[in-house]
Specification:
A 5-stranded antiparallel β-sheet has the order 1-4-5-2-3. The chain starts with 5 loop residues before the first helix and ends in a 5-residue tail after the last strand. The chain has about 120 residues and is of the alpha+beta class. It has one domain: Translation Initiation Factor IF3 (2-Layer Sandwich), CATH 3.30.110. The protein has 2 helices and 5 strands.
């Protein structure tokens, strides 16, 4: 019994529509200028935000700016003023009718302790 060529070809196309990609987006010294401002190190912090899309285009929930929101979430989580030693990674998961974009921020939380010097 011979399989029609269309069935294996459809399977290859379907696999091409599925996938996951994780990309280190950036590394930064700080989320805000530190110029001469003394600070106390609070410790490591991580925050993640996700946004999902139908057909990869229509947002299911709205997050206006994933990177800014993720940095703000990490800062709030640590009750900090800023983050230093930032690393940002993005991950994209594509399914046939659904896509999810994840942004993860890792850094060290700090709190400013006095006036500029």
């Amino acid at each position: 019994m011979k399989l029609p060529v269309k069935i294996p070809l459809a399977g290859i196309v379907l696999l091409g529509l599925l996938g996951c990609v994780r990309v280190p987006a950036s590394v930064s010294a700080a989320s805000t200028p530190l110029e001469g401002r003394p600070y106390q190190v609070l410790g490591p912090v991580t925050a993640t935000t996700r946004q999902s899309f139908i057909l990869g285009l229509i947002p299911v929930q709205s997050e206006p700016e994933r990177l800014a929101e993720t940095i703000a979430a990490a800062t709030r989580k640590a009750n900090a003023d800023a983050l230093i030693d930032l690393t940002v990674e993005t991950m994209t998961r594509n399914y046939v009718l659904w896509a999810t974009y994840t942004t993860e921020v890792r850094g060290t939380a700090i709190r400013f302790t006095g006036a500029k010097t």
